[in-house]
């Protein structure tokens, strides 16, 4: 959920109240990303769930580099622009600590890699994510905007609880055959209900 920036002007207080109202009526999953508003979206989520953390299943994503001082791999999106992606283990750890700090929480329920870094094997990225699970900072791992092959490779390192993909915007470089495989693999890897 993007509370600011991408879709025009917004009001921080209204954004926080929107999340709180969602919690009031029984909506429990809050899904954000560190790239939304260069971390500001996560800060708004943190304000909204302050003193209500036990009511929310908190998901967020990392890997799109928004800090101009950080390195990353340019990933053409096919949408007229490229994204800078970093899945190196040291960046993964840094991104996690930043998300925890911005949201003011000790643990993230579901943590996604937003995109696979073309220059870093997915096994290395997921290995660093798995370290966060073992450290108690993350409960479940997810992957976003990846291929079926990458899901299989990642799952061999650590169980992948959730895969998310936008069918209208398959991962860059995905062949038509892989697009079908992504859906089938996601069905097989919907582990949250099977663990």
Order of helices and strands: HEHEEEHEHEHEH
The quaternary structure here is single chain
Helix content: 25-40%
Envelope shape: globular
**Name given to the CATH architecture:** Alpha-Beta Barrel
| Major beta-sheet overview | 5 strands, parallel
Q: Give the strand order of the largest sheet, numbering strands 1, 2, ... along the chain.
A: 1-2-5-6-7
- Estimate what percentage of residues fall within beta strands: 15-25%
Q: Can you tell me the CATH topology?
A: TIM Barrel
User: Are there runs of 5+ residues with pLDDT below 50, and where?
Assistant: 184-195
Number of helices: 6
Task: Describe this structure as you would to a colleague.
The chain is α/β, with parallel strands linked by helices. The protein has one domain (12-193): TIM Barrel, CATH 3.20.20.100. The protein is built from 6 helices and 7 strands. The chain has helices spanning 12-24, 40-49, 89-103, 122-134, 148-157, 176-188; strands at residues 29-31, 57-62, 73-76, 82-85, 108-113, 138-144, 162-164. The strands form 2 sheets. The chain has a 5-stranded parallel beta sheet, covered by helices on one side. Strands 3-4 form a two-stranded antiparallel ribbon. Strand 3 (73-76) and strand 4 form a beta hairpin. Helix 1 crosses helix 2 (40-49). The longest helix has 15 residues, at 89-103. The two termini are 26 Å apart.
